[in-house]
Amino acid sequence: MLTRTDLQSELDALASPTKAIALARFFKTGQGEYGEGDRFLGITVPEQRKLAKKFVSLSFDHLAELLQTDIHEYRLTALLILTYQFPKADLAKRAEIVSFYLNHTQWINNWDLVDVSCRQILGVYLLDQDRSILYQLAQSPSLWEQRIAIISTLEFIKHEQFTDTLQITMILLNHRHDLIHKAVGWMLREVGKQDRPVLVEFLDLHYQQMPRTMLRYAIEHFDEPVRKAYLQRI
Fold it and tell me: How far apart are CA 114 and CA 51, in angstroms?
């Protein structure tokens, strides 16, 4: 039977010190930066996906041990395993995976960890469930829980359900962090891809309040004259 220790050994064997330095810089691990304290082995995401599929049967206990480390690739691979477990799970098991995920958000603490997992787990699960947990996360003091809240709505957008994205955007509209500006702008852009009039109506009401980065992301696919018009009016 494959174990958490086996997975760690295989990940360690793929380590690249050169890549680790570059990744630590890219994910802002310096003092006072959002990824402070995170350590990297220097492993590509495709390599981690391959191992996640191999170790997809790992238990919650083993996954918790992987998540509760400062090694980024251990945490990312654990989250990938959850995303591969989820589609094959029955309703009861899916609820357990969601509960486990929400109980470990403390360690889902960089933007790639959020983005690779929340839509595939929380977004899919909440399609036919009460979504109040997203509003709790959006009002959390945790930057990463706030990002989970907005990025999870990408699954709703794909099903042409925009209300939660727009309401959570209002909660996060005046957020101070660039990572939230980018995340919200990205989700608004996705709304626009599905239904341009819905996005335009929302922007016309709120674009003047938006941080510039958020607005730029939201209007990225507009024609240049329209983009310039929005940006010049703030």
Answer: 19
Per-residue pLDDT of the chain (234 residues; tens, 9 = 90+): 899 999 999 999 999 999 999 999 999 999 999 999 999 999 999 999 999 999 999 999 999 999 999 999 999 999 999 999 999 999 999 999 999 999 999 999 999 999 999 999 999 999 999 999 999 999 999 999 999 999 999 999 999 999 999 999 999 999 999 999 999 999 999 999 999 999 999 999 999 999 999 999 999 999 999 999 999 875
> Which residue bears the tokens 């918790």?
64
Q: What is the DSSP letter of 86?
A: G
Q: pTM for the complete prediction?
A: 0.96
Token readout for 233 is 């009016």
Q: What is the dihedral of CA 99, 186, 113, 175, to 10 degrees?
A: -80
Q: What count of Cα atoms within 13 Å lies in the side-chain half-sphere of residue 125?
A: 28
DSSP-assigned states of every residue in 70-88: SBHHHHHHHHHHHHHHGGG
120 closest CA partner among 69, 171, 146, 82 = 82
Q: Which residues contact 205 (CB under 8 A, 6 or more apart)?
A: none
Helix (H) or strand (E) holding 192: helix 178-194
What's phi and psi for 41, nearest 5 deg? -95, -25
